[in-house]
Each structure stands twice: as structure tokens, then as C-alpha cells.
Write a structure and sequence with these properties.
CATH superfamily: AttH-like domain
Shape: globular
Strand content: over 45%
CATH architecture: Beta Barrel
Strand order of the largest sheet: 14-15-16-17-20-21-22-23
CATH topology: AttH-like fold
Number of helices: 0
Distance between the termini: 39 Å
Structural class: mainly beta
Number of strands: 23
Largest sheet: 8 strands, antiparallel, barrel
Length: 301
């Protein structure tokens, strides 16, 4: 079984030239730039892992009809014709070692982060919605082995976040298994970040009955197990114990230490890792699941 993490970053304006990839010279004062990155991990054998991060000065990310279409020479992510009445998207890569062609429907109920799709963090509002379990078709390849996606046993978490963000954060996109055949997973989108007065964070949860709730994050305890990136020098924790305000406890662990997606010139290093989770509700009922953790940090000077 393979798990694929597919990410795309939209171009933005940069005026402070504190890092310059010498191999392509993409950055200059006022230049609009962007990047795209992806990784493929075999979750049954985490030693099987490939990734790429590439920077680009391509700035036109929309087709003439207004549809999103981020198209590069070896990567694409964009809207396609609806499937079964649902909006759909396709992403593909021909980058050597990280090859895939996946289509997914926006077929799962949307999770509105913060309850309304917006929440306040530090000094700015964050807008975010998540489509946590879209029907997925296509194929992916790892080590020259091509695997066709089993649409009945696969899903895509598609996340859209814009406007502001904390200076740095840890974000968990978790899918909690019900343990009962035929029942949907429970998605949790959990933000954790530091504020001037201490820990900030919230968990947005869509329960099995379709009810969405938002809980403060009471505490986050990273473990001593960590990974130091040779590419960026950033030290990332690999395990976390989270407590939510209702007494829910989650133990989250990265399955592979090296899951950073670094870019040339130490640009915006981030850890995008596949994780497993187990925990206990306040009632004492235990649960388990899986997901992704995103850890952002500034590269050492």
C-alpha cells in the first residue's frame, strides 16, 4: 500500500531578498514566484520514500475560463470536468521518482476550520476549509512500481488555506477510524501555534453524525525524538501528545524521520509527514487513525 502527499504552493510577492537559489536566480526585489512539491511514501515500508520541491517564476495559475490550472513542464494541479455531479481536480507529476496521475472529487462534506472557515491567530485571521475524504482514482509509482488506486479504499484530503497565518505552526490533518465496517472516518483539523501569552490552537472536528465542533487545544507536548534536517538545519519533533479542551488525548507519531520538503536556498522549509495517531476520548473509549503533520519553521541563519 502507498500513501501519497501532494502539495502545491501558490505564487506570492517577495521583496526581501534574504535567500537566493544560485542555480536559477528566481528571486529579485518585487519578483512574483511560486513553488510546487510532492512526496510519495510506502506506508508498509517507510524506507521507500521519494520527494521533490521545485521553485518557479510561472505566475499564471488560471485558465482563460477562470478555472484553477497550475501547469508546469513536469507537474500540474487543476480543475477538471465534474464527476458524478461533484467538482473534481487532477494532479500529475512526471518528476523522476515521484510520478503519479491522480484525480479526486470534492465529494465529502467540507470541514470549516474554526467553525465558520475562519479563525484568529496571533495578529491575523486564517481562512481555511478542508475536504477530508474525496473519492480518488488514478495511479502512482515508486521505485518503478506502478500502482493503480483502489477507489473503494482510497481518499484525498484537499485543503485550502489563505489570507493570514501564524509566524510558525504545527498543523495536524487526522482521520480517526470508527472501527466499524461501513462507517466513515472522523476528520480532525488541529492547529497549534505560539502566541505572546502562551499556546494557541484549536481543533475542528466533524463527528460521525455530521455535527461539526470546535475545541481549544489545551496542551501540546512534543517528544524528545526528533529529526535534524541536513538540508535546512531545522530540528523537527517526531511525536506529539495533544490534549483537547474536552479531555480527548491524542498520541501522534511520524512513521519516518526524514519527511521534510526543503527547497533550494533553504526557502520556507517545512515538514510534511505521514503520521499515525492513537488516543482516548474523555469517556475512556480508545481510537486510532492516520494523517499528515505539517511543521513550519524558520531555517537557521
Amino acid at each position: 500500500m502507498f500513501a501519497a502527499a501532494i502539495l502545491v504552493f501558490l505564487p506570492h510577492l517577495t521583496k526581501a531578498v534574504t535567500f537566493i537559489p544560485e542555480n536559477d536566480g528566481l528571486f529579485s526585489n518585487g519578483l512574483v514566484w511560486g513553488g510546487y512539491q510532492a512526496s510519495v511514501l510506502d506506508i508498509t515500508d517507510p524506507s521507500q520514500y521519494e520527494r521533490f520541491t521545485q521553485l518557479s517564476n510561472v505566475t499564471n495559475l488560471y485558465a482563460d475560463n477562470g478555472d484553477f490550472n497550475a501547469s508546469f513542464s513536469n507537474y500540474e494541479f487543476g480543475s477538471i470536468a465534474p464527476k458524478d455531479g461533484n467538482p473534481a481536480m487532477r494532479t500529475w507529476s512526471s518528476v523522476s521518482g515521484v510520478e503519479f496521475d491522480l484525480s479526486f472529487e470534492l465529494s465529502a462534506p467540507v470541514l470549516l476550520n474554526g467553525g465558520l472557515g475562519s479563525f484568529q491567530s496571533v495578529s491575523s485571521a486564517v481562512n481555511e476549509w478542508s475536504m477530508p475524504a474525496g473519492k480518488t482514482t488514478g495511479w502512482l509509482s515508486l521505485n518503478d512500481t506502478k500502482v493503480t488506486v483502489n477507489a473503494q479504499m482510497s481518499l484525498t484530503w484537499y485543503d485550502r488555506q489563505w489570507n493570514g497565518a501564524p509566524p510558525s505552526w504545527t498543523w495536524f490533518a487526522l482521520l480517526i477510524e470508527s472501527g466499524k465496517a461501513g462507517e466513515d472516518v472522523t476528520p480532525m483539523s488541529i492547529w497549534s501555534y505560539n502566541t505572546t501569552s502562551g499556546l494557541g490552537g484549536l481543533a475542528t472536528i466533524r463527528e460521525a453524525a455530521g455535527v461539526q465542533k470546535v475545541l481549544p487545544v489545551a496542551s501540546v507536548q512534543p517528544s524528545n525524538r526528533s529529526y535534524t534536517s541536513e538540508a535546512s538545519g531545522v530540528v523537527y519533533p517526531l511525536d506529539w501528545v495533544l490534549e483537547l479542551n474536552d479531555g480527548t488525548i491524542l498520541h501522534v507519531s511520524s512513521v519516518r524521520p526524514d519527511q521534510e520538503l526543503p527547497a533550494a536556498g533553504k526557502v520556507a522549509p517545512a515538514y510534511e509527514g505521514y503520521v499515525t495517531v492513537k488516543g482516548t476520548y474523555k469517556s475512556g473509549r480508545k481510537f486510532k487513525g492516520y494523517g499528515v503533520v505539517e511543521v513550519t519553521a524558520s531555517a537557521p541563519a
